[in-house]
Design brief:
Blueprint lengths: L3 E6 L4 H17 L4 E6 L17 H6 L3 E5 H6 L12 E3 L2 H10 L3 E3 L2
Parallel strand pairs: 1-2, 1-5, 2-3, 3-4
Length: 112
């Protein structure tokens, strides 16, 4: 059995993305070949903008093998265009459906 977890950020507050990043880094350090998904929805989708201004660098997470996803509904609600996203961020149709699908596939749910 492999370790796989989805980390969910739905608020646009630095403390949540900082905790999520630390959780992901600790997860990767503790478990060989751990798989991680970082999923944003709601106001948290704003972290996916290339110019979000937060201290977390999504590009470095993407380079480390983390799948970074954002809810398309949240993009629309927050008036974010796909070309404003950090390159490599994947748009999913509905964040809540993606969370359910991943959990049904055996992914652990982590909410920082």
């Amino acid at each position: 059995m492999g370790y796989k977890a989805v980390f969910h950020v739905d608020l646009f507050e630095d403390k949540y993305i900082n905790i999520a990043e630390a959780n992901i880094n600790n997860f990767h350090k503790a478990v060989d070949n751990a798989k991680a998904v970082l999923l944003f929805n709601g106001p948290g989708a704003q972290f996916c903008r290339a110019d979000h201004g937060a201290t977390v660098n999504l590009s470095s997470l993407l380079e480390s093998g983390v799948r970074v996803c954002v809810c398309n509904n949240a993009l629309k609600a927050n008036e974010i265009e796909p070309d404003e996203l950090t390159p490599g961020v994947e748009i999913v149709p509905a964040g809540v459906v993606e969370l359910v699908d991943l959990q049904n596939e055996g992914w652990a749910y982590i909410k920082p």
